[in-house]
Specification:
By secondary structure, the chain is mostly helical. It is built from ten helices and no strands. The N and C termini lie far apart (67 Å).
């Protein structure tokens, strides 16, 4: 938690006052406390945004912010620091593959997963002695 708060403070030091306050309002109180006090935010000021983003923990914090912030705050931060765009914009949703008119689409998927042979083996197993197999409904 200490790393998270320190990275938020460092990010706050790179933002303008309005953006820092908007970010503070969007975060829970315990996380935003360091952003609300400009003296605390400037204590951890990195040399540049590039220096800040070189840290893997800073990148994780920015990605988490991108996934949790409301769009208006996220776009405000991106306008203030365009280099944050790649980390703050949530990833695009991946659409499921389209089957289309491929009649063997399911079979291909099952073969790729090694499940087709398993399905065929199950369907060819004869019933145990004493077990009845219902072939048709009366």
């Amino acid at each position: 938690m200490v790393t998270l708060i320190s990275k938020l403070r460092a990010l706050g030091a790179l933002l303008g006052e309005r953006e820092r306050k908007a970010l503070a309002r969007a975060l829970p109180r315990d996380l935003a406390q360091g952003l609300r006090d400009p003296a605390q935010a400037s204590r951890n000021e990195p040399a540049s945004l590039e220096t800040f983003l070189a840290s893997p923990s800073a990148q994780v914090v920015c990605r988490a912010l991108g996934e949790t912030l409301i769009p208006s705050v996220r776009s405000r931060l991106i306008q203030a620091q365009p280099a944050l765009r790649a980390l703050l914009e949530p990833p695009a949703a991946v659409a499921p593959p389209q089957r289309g008119d491929d009649p063997h689409g399911e079979s291909r998927t099952l073969v790729a997963c090694g499940l087709l042979e398993e399905r065929e083996a199950r369907s060819s197993v004869s019933p145990e002695v004493g077990e009845k197999r219902l072939l048709s409904r009366p």
